[in-house]
Write a structure and sequence with these properties.
The complex is a heterodimer of chains A (125) and B (102). Chain A is mainly α. Chain A has 4 helices and no strands. Chain A has one domain. In chain A, helix 1 packs antiparallel against helix 2 and helix 2 runs antiparallel to helix 3. Chain A is elongated, with a radius of gyration of 19 Å. Chain B has one domain. Helices cover 88% and strands 0% of the residues of chain B. In chain B, helix 1 packs antiparallel against helix 2 and helix 2 runs antiparallel to helix 3. Chain B starts with a helix and ends with a helix. In chain B, 39% of the residues are buried. The chains are: A mainly alpha (125), B mainly alpha (102).
Chain lengths: 125, 102
């Protein structure tokens, strides 16, 4: 029974990864591509690691698979935040239908260069 | 007809390996084509996540759980690489603005 569950998790996870890759190829601009990559990629990898945890059925392997899942869930948002911030400050091309640009409005209100301001509240540029 | 669990698992893991390789190839197309440097960094990040998934699927396929340790180490290194590349993007922009001001 556990083998069947693991097989289903494997198929679902790899299809999520495939969707992430197709979204990476087809979506129109960098920030929208990041949406596909981080969400579907993390979910797909999480499903495949859960399949490994199910199929092993012993404590050590399950804990290691859970550790990888937790690590991915912790680092994927941080990495996506860093890439998105760097890309926006570098001046990327935005999709022509983009109609909300809150960071741009913020920067116009306070036009000082973010990376040169002294670090506030632990954030550094 | 009763499906044998181990046979289904072997077939599923083989299919998963093929699908992951195909996704990595598709992401590689974006890595080559990406018009801006940020696109390439995002594609590299996705390829790293796909490699972690591939290592997990290969751990199931081969029945050797020690590939999970490789996946842990690779996820760590890939995160560090992503952070370094995004810092590099910010820094290269900063140098360009100081050159423009001169």
């Amino acid at each position: 029974m556990s083998a069947i569950i693991a097989a289903a998790l494997l198929i679902v996870g790899s299809i999520f990864c495939l969707v992430a890759a197709v979204g990476m190829l087809r979506l129109p601009d960098t920030l929208i591509r990041m949406h596909a990559a981080t969400k579907a990629g993390t979910l797909g990898t999480g499903c495949i690691l859960a399949a490994e945890a199910v199929v092993a059925g012993e404590l050590g392997t399950t804990l290691r698979a859970a550790a990888v899942i937790v690590f991915l869930l912790l680092t994927a948002p941080v990495g996506a935040h860093l890439i998105g911030r760097a890309a926006y400050h570098r001046g990327i091309y935005l999709f022509r239908k983009t109609w909300i640009d809150e960071l741009g409005a913020c920067l116009q209100k306070a036009p000082a260069d973010v990376s040169k301001r002294p670090p506030e509240g632990g954030e550094q540029g | 007809m009763i499906i044998d669990g181990q046979t289904a698992l072997q077939a599923a893991s083989r299919l998963a390996l093929v699908l992951l390789i195909v996704s990595a190839a598709i992401a590689f197309i974006r890595l080559v084509r990406g018009p801006q440097a940020a696109d390439r960094v995002v594609a590299l990040d996705l390829i790293a996540v796909l490699i972690v998934a591939f290592l997990a699927a290969y751990a199931i396929h081969s029945g050797d759980a020690s590939f999970l340790d490789v996946a842990i180490a690779y996820a760590l290194v890939a995160f560090l690489g992503t952070v370094a590349l995004s810092r590099f993007l910010l820094r290269s922009r900063r140098r360009r603005t100081t050159e423009e001001k001169r």
